[in-house]
Specification:
Layout lengths: L3 H9 L23 E2 L13 E7 L16 E3 L2 E5 L5 E5 L5 E5 L23 E4 L5 E7 L2 E6 L14 E3 L13 E2 L5 E3 L2 E4 L2 E2 L10 E5 L5 E5 L18 H4 L9 E4 L4 E5 L21 E6 L5 E6 L15 E7 L2 E9 L5 E5 L9 E5 L14 E5 L21 H13 L14 E3 L13 E3 L4 E7 L3 E3 L1 E3 L8 E2 H12 L1 H4 L15 H4 L2 H10 L12 H11 L9 E2 L12 E3 L3 E2 L14 E7 L5 E6 L21 E4 L3 E4 L6 E6 L5 E6 L9 E5 L2 E10 L6 E9 L3
Parallel strand pairs: 1-37
Antiparallel strand pairs: 2-43, 3-4, 4-5, 5-6, 7-8, 8-9, 9-10, 11-14, 12-13, 13-15, 15-16, 17-18, 18-19, 19-20, 21-22, 22-23, 24-25, 26-29, 27-28, 28-35, 29-34, 30-33, 31-32, 35-36, 37-38, 38-39, 39-40, 41-42, 42-43
Length: 714
C-alpha cells in the first residue's frame, strides 16, 4: 500500500527502545502488554527454515463441548508454564517440551460423566512472582478461584488466602455469592501487590467488575476501585439511579492490565455495564463502564479516565488492555497508552495526563429507541486519527458478492428490513445490524507494538451481526405447569444466548436434543454451576431452575405438575431480552457482508498513518474469490527485532510469519487444530523459540490439546 521509500522514511523516524525485551515472563510478553521480543536469531532470511522443536499434548481436550486453549504461555528461565483445556496448570522443559509437573484444580471434584459439573473458564494467561531469594509463585484462575501455586513443584502455597486459593466472590463490597464471577485474564503484579480483574455475567443479574488488589504473599485485600461508583465517589453522578451501585453489574477489567512499573501506574480498559443490550435500568453515561483507567498501583486511586462509549447498549466493551509505548510525535518522545477497540477506533493518550494525542470529537448519534424506558446518549466520541482499522458501516454495496444469486437477494431483502444506517443505531424489535460487530474490530488478543519502529499492529474481525430485542414483561399465568413456566423462564434467562427455540447463536451451542445428552441431575447441576461461556444461575431459586430443566429436557411429568411462582421481587428485572447473538449470515451459513472478514494492520502511532493492511486468513469455501478472504480471528500477534510478525488466530489452522515492514507473508505452517491464542517468543541456551497453543474449539473448528514450539535448525 505504501512505497518502499515511504516505509523507510517512517521507520527512520522510529523511536528507540531503551528496555531489552528478551524474555517472555509476563502475559503478552511484558508488563507493558506490547507482545514484543528483542530476540533476532529468527529473522526474515531464515524464517523459511522454521521447524517443529517439540509438541506437548495436554491430553484433556473436550471435543464434545468444544474446549479451547487461549493461553499465552510464559517462560521463566528454562521452564514454560501454560494451561490446558480443562484448566490444569503445567510446567514444561522449554527446550524439550518434557513435562515437569501438572496441577489439577478440580482433583477433588466429581467429573461431568458422573453427573456433576464445574465451571471452566477460558484461561488466556498466568502471572509469575518471585522474591528473588526463596519463593517463586504462579497465579491463575480456574472456576471462581484465583490459585497461588509453587512454581517449582506445582503445589498450592497454603499460606496464601485459604489453602492457596482466593474466592473471587469475596471482597467486592457487595454480596455476589450466587452470581457468576471468574477471570479469563491473569492479574498483574506490582512489587508485592497482586491486581485482579474479573469476568462477570453480561445479563441483568451480574456482579460488579470492581478492581481489587491483594498482598501477593497473604491474599489479604489491600485496596478496591469501584468501577460502579459508590455515593460520594467520582463518577457516581453519571448514573441517574442513585442506587445503581447496589444492583448494576459489569464495568469489569476482564481483558487484563498493563503496568508502568517505573511510575507505579496500572492501566485497565473496562467492559460495558450489564444488561448489555438494554439500559433502561442504568440511565446516564455509566462511568466507569467502557473506560480507559489509570490507577495508582499502590493505592487504587484514580489518576485519569476516558470513556470510549457513553451508555453502551451494543456490547462495545474495551476488549484488550492498553499498550504502553514511547512514540515519536512531532519530533518529541512521548510516553503513551494506546487502546484498540471493537469499533475499529484507536485511542492514543498521554500516559501521565490522559490527554488524547489526537483530537477526539463528540459527534451526534441516533437517539430514538423503540424500547420503552431506554434513553441513549446524544453524542459519542470519535477520534480524528488514526483512521479506523475496519469498515464502520454495512451498506448495500457491502453485501457479499460471492453468494449464490438466490441468497444474495434474500440477504439484500433482510438488510433492507433491518436498521443499518449508523454504527450507533439503537437495538430494535425489528432487528438492528451491529457493525462493527460484537467480536470487533479488535478483540481480546489485543494489539502488538514495536518499540524499535513505533508501529502498532492489530488484527481485526469484520463480521456483521443482527440483534433483535423481544419484550419479556409477560407475567406468569395464574395456572401454570412446570413446562409452561420453564418456557417463560427460558425466554427471560436463556434465550439471549441460545435463541428462541434453543437452536444456539454465535458462540453459544444448540440445546436441541439436550434430553439425549444429559440426565436430569446432570443438567440441573449445569444450571447451578455453569460451564465455560455459560454462567451459573444461582440467582434463580430452586423452583425456577427445576422448571427450566424440565422444559429443555422435555420431561413428560412437567406438563401436569403444577408450578407455584416463588419469584423474588427484584431490581434486576428488565423488560427486554434479545433473540440470540446472531451473525448476519446467508441461508447457507456464509457471511452476509463482503470480505475481507479478517485483516492485519500496521499503523505508525506517531503519525497516525497506515504502513500496510491486508487480509488475514482465507476461507476456502469461496473458490471464486479473487484474493484471500480473511477469516474471523481470535488471539494476538508477536513482533520481533528479527523483522517478523508471528500470528495464528484464524480458523484456517495456519500459523504465519510476516515481514513486519511490508506485510509480506514469509512462512506459514499447517497446525493440527486452529490456534486461538497469542504466540510467545523466548530463548534458552542461546537458541530462540516461538510457541503457540493450538486448542481450536471456536468457529466450528475441532478442539485440540497441543502446544507447539518452533525453531530454526542449528
Amino acid at each position: 500500500m505504501k512505497g518502499v521509500a515511504t516505509i523507510l522514511i517512517l521507520f527512520g523516524l522510529s523511536c528507540s527502545s531503551k528496555k531489552n525485551y528478551n524474555t517472555w515472563t509476563s502475559y503478552n510478553g511484558s508488563p507493558e502488554s506490547i507482545h514484543y521480543s528483542s530476540l533476532k536469531q529468527i529473522d526474515t532470511n531464515n524464517v523459511k527454515n522454521l521447524q517443529v522443536a517439540w509438541t506437548y499434548h495436554t491430553g484433556d481436550a473436550d471435543t464434545v463441548h468444544n474446549s479451547q486453549i487461549q493461553c499465552n504461555a510464559i517462560i521463566v528461565d528454562s521452564v514454560l508454564f501454560g494451561t490446558s483445556p480443562q484448566m490444569k496448570l503445567f510446567a514444561l522443559n522449554a527446550v524439550t517440551g518434557e513435562q515437569k509437573w501438572v496441577f489439577n484444580p478440580f482433583d477433588s471434584i466429581a467429573t461431568a460423566d458422573k453427573g456433576f459439573f464445574f465451571i471452566l473458564n477460558n484461561c488466556r494467561g498466568i502471572a509469575y512472582w518471585t522474591d528473588h531469594e526463596n519463593e517463586r509463585r504462579i497465579f491463575y484462575t480456574a472456576g471462581s478461584n484465583l490459585y497461588c501455586i509453587n512454581a517449582d513443584n506445582g503445589q498450592p502455597i497454603k499460606n496464601f488466602a485459604i489453602d492457596g486459593k482466593l474466592d473471587l466472590h469475596n471482597d467486592l463490597d457487595r454480596n455476589v455469592n450466587d452470581l457468576f464471577v471468574t477471570s479469563t485474564s491473569p492479574p498483574v503484579i506490582y512489587k508485592n501487590i497482586l491486581i485482579v480483574g474479573t469476568r462477570v455475567d453480561e445479563g441483568p443479574i451480574a456482579a460488579p467488575g470492581h478492581i481489587r488488589a491483594y498482598d501477593v504473599r497473604t491474599g489479604k485485600r489491600l485496596w478496591i476501585f469501584h468501577t460502579i461508583p459508590f455515593p460520594g465517589e467520582d463518577g457516581y453522578e453519571s448514573w441517574e439511579d442513585s442506587t445503581a451501585y447496589k444492583f448494576i453489574g459489569g464495568a469489569n477489567a476482564w481483558n487484563g492490565f498493563s503496568l508502568d512499573e517505573k511510575r507505579g501506574v496500572v492501566y485497565a480498559a473496562l467492559g460495558s455495564a450489564s444488561y448489555d443490550f438494554y439500559g433502561g435500568r442504568r440511565l446516564g453515561n455509566n462511568l466507569f463502564a467502557n473506560c480507559v483507567l489509570a490507577l495508582d498501583a499502590n493505592t487504587g486511586k484514580k489518576i485519569w479516565h476516558f470513556q470510549t462509549v457513553h451508555h453502551d447498549v451494543w456490547d462495545r466493551d474495551l476488549s484488550s488492555p492498553p499498550i504502553l509505548a514511547t512514540i515519536n510525535k512531532n519530533g518529541k518522545q512521548v510516553d503513551v497508552a494506546a487502546v484498540t477497540t471493537k469499533t475499529g477506533f484507536i485511542y492514543v493518550f498521554d500516559r501521565q495526563t490522559g490527554k488524547p494525542l489526537y483530537d477526539v470529537t463528540e459527534k451526534p448519534v441516533p437517539t430514538i429507541s423503540e424500547l420503552k424506558g431506554e434513553k441513549l446518549s446524544k453524542i459519542q466520541p470519535f477520534p480524528t486519527a488514526p483512521a479506523p482499522f475496519m469498515r464502520q458501516n454495512f451498506t448495500e454495496k457491502d453485501i457479499n458478492p460471492y453468494l449464490p444469486d438466490s441468497s444474495f437477494a434474500d440477504v439484500k431483502r433482510k438488510w433492507a428490513s433491518y436498521k443499518h444506517d449508523h454504527m450507533f443505531d439503537p437495538i430494535s424489535q425489528s432487528g438492528t445490524i451491529v457493525f462493527p460487530g460484537l467480536d470487533g474490530g479488535g478483540e481480546w488478543g489485543g494489539p502488538t507494538f514495536d518499540p524499535e519502529t513505533g508501529v502498532l499492529y492489530v488484527n481485526a474481525n469484520e463480521m456483521s451481526w443482527v440483534l433483535t430485542a423481544v419484550d419479556i414483561t409477560n407475567k406468569p399465568a395464574s395456572e401454570e405447569n412446570f413446562e409452561q413456566a420453564g418456557k417463560r423462564l427460558y425466554r427471560t434467562n436463556c434465550m439471549g444466548c441460545h435463541g428462541p427455540e434453543g437452536q444456539g447463536s454465535g458462540n453459544f451451542p444448540s440445546l436441541i436434543g439436550a434430553e439425549k445428552k444429559y440426565t436430569h441431575n446432570a443438567f440441573y447441576n449445569l444450571i447451578q454451576s455453569g460451564r465455560r461461556m455459560m454462567p451459573a444461575f444461582k440467582q434463580l431459586n430452586e423452583n425456577e431452575q427445576e422448571a427450566i430443566a424440565s422444559y429443555i429436557l422435555k420431561i413428560e411429568s412437567a406438563k401436569t405438575k403444577k408450578y407455584v411462582d416463588k419469584r423474588r421481587d427484584s431490581l434486576y428485572r428488565v423488560p427486554y431480552s434479545i433473540t440470540g447473538y446472531n451473525k448476519f449470515l446467508s441461508k447457507e451459513g456464509y457471511p452476509a457482508i463482503s470480505p475481507p472478514w479478517g485483516t492485519l494492520n500496521a499503523i505508525d502511532l506517531g503519525s497516525g498513518k497506515y504502513i500496510w493492511k491486508q487480509p488475514l486468513g482465507n476461507d476456502t469455501a469461496f473458490k471464486n474469490a479473487t484474493q484471500p478472504t480473511g477469516t474471523e480471528n481470535y488471539g494476538g500477534s508477536a513482533v520481533t527485532a528479527g523483522g517478523l510478525l508471528f500470528i495464528a488466530a484464524t480458523k484456517d489452522q495456519k500459523f504465519r510469519a510476516f515481514n513486519k515492514r511490508n506485510g509480506k507473508l514469509l512462512w506459514e505452517f499447517d497446525l493440527p487444530t486452529a490456534a486461538f491464542a497469542t504466540p510467545s517468543v523466548y530463548a534458552v541456551n542461546g537458541r530462540q523459540y516461538v510457541v503457540i497453543a493450538c486448542g481450536g474449539g471456536k468457529l466450528k473448528t475441532k478442539s485440540g490439546d497441543n502446544y507447539i514450539a518452533f525453531c530454526v535448525p542449528q
